[in-house]
Amino acid sequence: MVYSFPGEQARTFETLMDAAWPSVERHDTGDWVLRAAAGVTQRANSVWPRNAAEQPEDALRGAAQWYRERRLPLIFQLTDTPANAALNEVLDGRGFTRQSETLIMARPAGPGPVPLQQAFPVEVREQPDDDWLALWWSVDGRGGAAELETARAILSGCPSLYALVRDNDGVPAAVGRLSLVAGTGGLYCMATSPSHRRRGYASAVLRALMAEGDVRGVGRFWLLATAANHGAQRLYSQAGFSEWGRCLYRQQRPRRAVNGC
Question: What pTM was computed for the model?
Answer without folding.
Answer: 0.89
